[in-house]
Design a protein that fits this description.
Rossmann fold, Alpha/beta hydrolase, about 250 residues, 6 helices, eight-stranded mixed β-sheet, signal, single chain, alpha/beta, three-stranded antiparallel β-sheet
Length: about 250
């Protein structure tokens, strides 16, 4: 993974799965701009010409990879699980773009909370008037912190199988409840009832902490975790809830 320094939030984050300790400190950073040259492939799964690169160049040797699909005012940022890449969200991202959404998918680096704020701004600069953050597993943790700290605020948070702790490289972790307690935007939290990481329980705990007046917890049958909620037996219910939420939050 790569290192990022971006405006307003500087957290060195080690990406993880549903549970566990500590503290991260906001700091200063600079924004990169999308690369003007489109690569032949992004993460080996985006077809040539399919999307617009939105990479964040942090230094001569460090880049956070991102791609935009579609266009228009209805923005969605998709953040993958720990160890996942753009490829993980690409099938659903393509589906959303086909429905008229302006989608950005990215590979988190070591400062993903700051990075997600940057990429929300990228979508706005490219024409999105509303932006919703969607994350799976540790990507849901990142999205929760993004929903709590991004300025100007995003328009919604969709959380799939997140966890109760965000780890920080070289430090103790930071409890996700610290971010949840600041999430005032509409939120949708989805988890499998039999998720071995106990994400259904975490969903209820985090939702109870959120000051948002518009929040919903959806617990579906089965053990599916993260993006797999959109491919397993619960897929119809999960996709319907997520689609309705995005529609309501982006107009």
């Amino acid at each position: 993974m790569r290192t990022a320094l971006i405006a307003g939030l500087s957290l060195a984050l080690l990406l993880g799965g549903c549970a566990s300790p500590g503290t991260a400190t906001p700091g200063n950073a600079t924004s990169g701009r999308p690369s003007p040259v489109e690569p032949s492939r992004v993460d080996g799964c985006v077809e040539p010409g399919e999307g617009v690169p939105a990479d964040l160049r942090e230094s001569e040797t460090s880049t956070v990879t991102a791609v935009r699909l579609g266009s228009g005012p209805r923005g969605v940022v998709l953040t993958p699980e720990h160890g996942g890449t753009i490829c993980q969200w690409l099938p659903f991202g393509r589906k959303l773009a086909g429905r008229g959404y302006h989608v950005l998918i990215w590979d988190p680096g070591f400062d993903p909370v700051a990075e997600i704020a940057h990429f929300a701004a990228v979508l706005r600069e490219a024409g999105a008037r509303r932006v919703v953050l969607v994350g799976a597993s540790n990507g849901a943790n990142i999205a929760t912190f993004g929903a709590a700290w991004t300025t100007p605020p995003v328009d919604g948070l969709a959380w799939l199988s997140g966890e109760d702790m965000l780890y920080v490289a070289g430090q103790n972790g930071r409890p996700v409840r610290d971010a949840a307690a600041r999430v005032a935007v509409p939120a949708l939290l989805i988890a499998g009832r039999d998720d071995p990481m106990h994400c259904a329980e975490v969903a209820g705990q985090l939702a109870a902490l959120m000051p948002s007046t518009e929040k919903r917890v959806l617990i579906v049958p089965g053990p599916e975790h993260g993006v797999r909620l959109l491919t397993g037996a619960a897929q119809p219910a999960v996709e319907q809830a997520l689609t309705e939420f995005l529609q309501a939050r982006t107009g």
